Amino acid sequence: MEKIKCLIIGAGPAGYTAAIYAARAEMKPVMYVGPQPGGQLMITNDVENFPGYPEGVMGPQMMEDIKKQAERFGTDVRYGTVTDIDVSERPFKVTIDAQTTVLAETAIIATGASAKWLGIESEQRLNGKGVSACAVCDGFFFRGQEVAIVGAGDTACEEAHYLSKLCKKVHMLVRRDEFRASKIMQARVQNTPNIEIHFNTEVDEVLGGEEVSGIRLKNNATGATSEISVTGLFIAIGHEPNTGFLKGKVDMDEQGYIITVPGTTTTNVPGLFASGDAQDKIYRQAVTAAGSGCMAALEAERFLASVEHAVGSEA
């Protein structure tokens, strides 16, 4: 059975950065890219807030650049999805696509998180063409324009307030007749003049051909529909970490985000590290994911060194 010194699971900014550092440390990392190589950046058009790209870059191009950098130093990038991992003892027994098994002395989880969507065809068709799941990432492109945001929690309120500083007007669409957000966050959006809150309202259809030109709304109390003209639609109804295969095997919070020791990527399982959006539900940015990927590789290297030192001492 193949034995791997450093296994990286997932291929977004966190995974590829971990691979760069692990490869340079002679850890001979093997990466399994999963079902969406490159992560959420593969559905992101313009990235203008990642260092090193003064003119901006397309998300897929940026991920290809980082992938080439990881491969340059010897990362073994493989296509396949980790379907199971036994962390009861080291090396970990890892199953790929429910059929191939490898052994990993250390593993870095970089599987990311997936945005929750409304589930309508037009939303997916116009994804990246005015529809976005990240106001902090894409709000800048809509400065001076009229936009809408869907959501009722703290994150939705925070992103609506952020957009209000850039956009002429923000329509906040709340499905029920009340917010789920904390009182302080509710007050913040309610007291912002250019945020208009629509209660009992959901998106019936995203309008537009090549890009968003408006949305058709449905009033959940009356069933009536109406249309408003907007150039951007932001979905802020939550994210789901891609950590299902680790359930019951590593400490997670109630949402499925992996819990790490504060200031580190260390989990409660020795030799298992978590980076990127799989453990970060606060920032969820490419640059913070990359930083935590670096941390995970350095911590994996130090862990292996400590284990080897302990074995040498016993001998």
> How is the CATH topology of the largest domain named?
FAD/NAD(P)-binding domain
What profile does the largest beta sheet have? Answer: 7 strands, mixed
Instruction: Determine the fraction of residues in helical runs and give it as a percent range.
Output: 25-40%
- Which structural class do you get from the secondary structure elements? alpha/beta
CATH architecture of the largest domain: 3-Layer(bba) Sandwich
Assigned CATH superfamily of the largest domain: FAD/NAD(P)-binding domain
**What is the CA-based Rg, rounded?**
22 Å
Shape estimate: elongated
Strand content: 25-35%
Q: pLDDT below 50 for ≥5 consecutive residues: which ranges?
A: none
Which sequence of SSEs, written as H and E, runs from N to C?
EHEEEHEEEEEHEHEHEHEEEEEEEH
CATH class of the largest domain: Alpha Beta
Distance between the termini: 26 Å
Compute the average pLDDT: 94
The number of domains is 2
Outline of the structure:
This protein is of the alpha/beta class. The chain has 7 helices and 19 strands. α5 packs parallel to α6 (183-190).
Structure description:
The strands form five sheets. Strands 1, 2, 5, 6, 7, 8 and 19 form a seven-stranded mixed β-sheet that branches. About 25% of the residues lie in helices and about 25% in strands. The longest helix has 29 residues, at about 285-315. The chain has seven helices and 19 strands. The chain is elongated and about 70 Å long. The model has no long low-confidence stretch (mean pLDDT about 95). The chain folds into two domains: about 5-115 and about 240-315, 3-Layer(bba) Sandwich (FAD/NAD(P)-binding domain), CATH 3.50.50; about 115-235, FAD/NAD(P)-binding domain, CATH 3.50.50.60.
